[in-house]
Amino acid sequence: MMKYGIIDIGSNTFRLIIADILKDTYFITDGFKENVRLSAGIDQNGKLSQEKMEYGLKTLKMLVNYCKISQCDEIRVVATAALRKATNRQDFIDFARQNIGIEVELLPGELEAEYDYVGSVNAINLKDYLFMDIGGGSTEIGLIKNRSLVNVISLPFGSVDLAQNYNLSDKPAEKDLKKLEKYILSQYKEVEWLKKAKGLPLVGIGGTIRNMGKIQTRKEDYPLSAIHLYTISVDNVFDIYDTVSSISNKDRENINGLGKDRADIFVGACGAVKLLLEYCEGEKLIISRDGLREGLLFEKIGYGKNHVAQNPLELSVNNMMIVYDVDRKHAEHVLFLFKKLFEELQEVHMIQEDQSEIIYIASMLHDVGKMIDYKNHHEHTFYIMLNSILKAVEHKKHLIATVVAGNHTSSKLKNEIEKYTKILSKEELELIDKLSLLIKLAEGLDRSLSRKVKDIMCRRVDNYVIIKTINYDDISLETAYLKTFESDFEKTFGYKMIVV
Fold it and tell me: Is the pTM of the predicted complex or chain greater than 0.90?
């Protein structure tokens, strides 16, 4: 295992993440950010001020030292738009090399966008989409078709310079907003290939877009904390922009979900998102928590631009299984039995829609809670799955799979899950009840963790459902355990269960 540190010298914020890397998986163990705003220190001649230079180098030294204290085996430092624009950028890079002992890698705009692509495509299960990463000093946009990067561009505006150039820090004047919108639209119109993105979902990356997600989730009293893959309708994006562009900075600072350190540079960046959705006739904004830094991590474990994950959900699940030391053979056997029960009992459970993703996630991760303690491990499983970033699956499916996995034992979840399940329909709650019973049976059929039950066949006879096991060894432990679910089976499905 190696410990890998990544420092992202952004135009607005310096960010550090530290990850443990094992084979083709990573697990972020630490992170830190400092609001430096290098972009605000660049004068009309493109020179970075001495004050910002010193602040930036001091912050970089702090982060590098923290990586060393954390025993990072390797540290990668990348810089984006602010240093790209600074005419005296070499002074910064030379000082870092000579006095901090670190090499600063200046990323060209298109390469930054490529890492945004790598970060997002490995974390989102979409074939075709447009992505946008609006930073402090530039905006990267890319077009993905069939999970391949087709076009990419880095545009010369970001949240900091838009706020400065169009007087947006406080309550903007109507004339300044019109100038802002005219300028941004002119930039989009020059990108000929954006016409190919008409109607595609927009995947948003970066702090501005995460803040938009937080504003909307707080407004809706959304119960889930995960922002990755949260979806905002185009109407709600427009509403957020209309609100923040019509009030003072002080009032923006009081908006729940909008960080005070971003309120004064939020209007222009929010407008750029709104205008791109409008220009490309997009219907929704999907938030990706993964971008540049995660792209660097994915590349490190072998999933770079030319070898992206074809099944990002599987990659994410495998990552969690390694991190939480899950018994893979048992999990795979539970998956096999769960799928077989679902197929064999079709006329009993009457679920018509495809539930393969939920069955896969719940089966493979149902035992992650054992890492904390075997006792009440179903509760630990529920908490871990609910609060982990399970990539490439929409929030409702994630939640349903989490509750089903947490229900895999004979014990009941004691967590107050009502606050989470309130976003589910009556039909989805019934689905949870049915799938929860099926995973109990699947887990019970391998209660000895020995995979003795090789296969099963089910049939309905009058008011009975007979589950016939195919096995070549004693399975008395399994059959005894399954008897505890006979009343649950009858209550859920209306039939008496017999296991032979």
Answer: yes
